[in-house]
Amino acid sequence: MANNSSLGAAKNAKNDEFYTQYNDIEAEMNAYVEYNPDVFRDKTVLLPCDDPEWSNFTKYFAANFERFGLKKLISTSYAPGAGNMQLTLFEMESPLYDKDLHDTHGKLFTVTRDINGSGSIDTDDIEFNGYLKGDGDFRSAEVTALRDEADIIITNPPFSLFNEFIVWLFQDDKQFIIIGNFNDATNLEIFPLIKNNKMWLGTTCPKEFIQPDGSLKSFGNTVWYSNIDHGLRHEKLILMTKANNLKYNKKLKKKFSENYHVSDYPQYDNYNAIEVPYVDAIPSDYDGIMGVPGSFLNHYNPEQFEIVGTVSAAGNPESLNLGNDYSQFVGYNQDGSKNGRTGSTFGKVPVLKKDDGIHPYYEKDGVRLQALFPRIFIRPKKGTDAK
Ligand SMILES: C[S@@+](CC[C@H](N)C(=O)[O-])C[C@H]1O[C@@H](n2cnc3c(N)ncnc32)[C@H](O)[C@@H]1O
Q1: What DSSP string describes 279-339?
Q2: What is the layout of strands, in order, in the sheet containing 208-210?
Q3: Triad 18, 20, 23: Cα angle to 5°
Q4: Do residues 104 and 135 touch, judged by C-beta distance below 8 A?
């Protein structure tokens, strides 16, 4: 039985021992190969934070070595990792096996040629090339040199070091396909890269990961991040006009009438944009800036929209300056009692004026407001038709 958790909790607990399932790797890689059948041709692929005895990444790429036309596959393991700790026959039977190094040193594996003379290159041709000089930390000089040698880096990096891993990838402008937490898309390090189309979301969301004891663990919010193109990011969102949304979009109408108490897309009080609570309610004929939920990033097509900025509950300092200073706000519960929230981050999120007083609200100088976060601000790409 899979047990539920969140990647955020794993990150905070520095629990990095979760292994990716073969099918999840296959489903995501298919999207890149479908879009560009030569995406891996003549490329050196590095799989850091890995270990072929445990990692399906190494197995998957070794199995597809010929189909993809790979030049070289390099895989490194991290000594303290759960997979690496287990001694397998593969390592033990190698002439390079050294029991003194096993516990403390990372390992290096490559696939380059048909070592067993079977006539094709596959998982039987994974070579154990011995131990790294250090523990296999991706930030070490030796793994960094392998990064520099590679064309594409693919892995599920340690959740607790996700931002550092991204910085490491961009130091050498590498192509990459990696797993991460969706919530990181709006964090200080990652959001500017997404906004500037230097990286984007992949196409699938792996949900279950293998734990060292073999059981599965479920995570919400797990996505792929990449800077390699795929077809989904060129698919246009099919949208209705503003008038038709207000007439036919039942979910939107319900939200507007029951929650916002408005009959049209409301304008924020502190930012010149309209509030769009659902991605499928983005009006095709609105030219200005719109605040949309974070899930928009799963549908972001840079030919259709541009990203103007974000505000997130975490108070990303990269957030747009929304003008009005709402930092002195007092928050109220549904029953009218104070909820204890004032916080400076509130000054950074878009707010709608509320005059009904029914729902939880914030108040300043007698004006009631509703805070909305996280939001991503987008506008239709100039010269294109968002329809
Ligand atoms: C989320 S797991 C994924 C493992 C494997 N890539 C997979 O998806 O099956 C991340 C791995 O990174 C390893 N790791 C943790 N810190 C590391 C570091 N500083 N450098 C390299 N690997 C690290 C962990 O031991 C863990 O095995």
Answers
A1: GGG--TT--S-EEE-GGGGGG--TTTEEEEEEE-TT--TTS---SS--TT-EEE-TTS-B-
A2: 3-6, 216-220, 208-210, 19-20
A3: 155
A4: yes
Query: Which one, of 206, 236, 230, lies nearest residue 218 by Cα?
Result: 206
> Does residue 66 or residue 348 have the better pLDDT?
66
Q: Which of 57, 78, 85, 165 to mutate to test the pocket of ligand 1 (most atoms within 8 A of CB)?
A: 78
Give residue limits of the domains in the chain. Answer: 3-234, 242-380
pTM comes to: 0.90
Half-sphere exposure of 68 (CA within 13 A, CB side): 25
pLDDT at 52 over 70: yes
Ligand 1: centre distance to CA 210 (Å):
13
Q: How far is CA 323 from CA 210, 338, 346, in A?
A: 47, 25, 12
55 lines ligand 1 (CB under 6 A): yes
Q: Which of 97-106, 180-189, 265-274, 318-327 has the lowest mean pLDDT?
A: 318-327
Protein residue closest via CA to atom 10 of ligand 1:
158
Ligand 1 centre from 136 Cα, in Å? 10
pLDDT band at 3, cuts 50/70/90? very low
Condensed to tens digits (0 to 9), the pLDDT of residues 350-362 reads 888 877 666 667 7
Output the residue whose Cα is nearest ligand 1's atom 13: 49
- Determine the distance separating the centroid of ligand 1 and the alpha carbon of 214, expressed in angstroms: 16
> Is the predicted pLDDT of residue 368 greater than 70, yes or no?
yes
Q: How confident is the model at residue 72 (pLDDT cuts 50, 70, 90)?
A: very high
Atom of ligand 1 nearest to the CA of 55: 9
Q: Is domain 3-234 in CATH 3.40.50, yes or no?
A: yes
Which letter does DSSP use for residue 257 in this model? I
Contact by Cβ (8 Å): 87, 94: no
C-beta separation of 129 from 110 below 8 A: yes
Q: Is 19 in the pocket of ligand 1 (CB under 6 A)?
A: yes
Q: How far is the centre of ligand 1, averaged over its atoms, from the C-alpha of 15 (Å)?
A: 10
Q: Residues 237-256: pLDDT tens digits?
A: 999 999 999 999 999 999 99
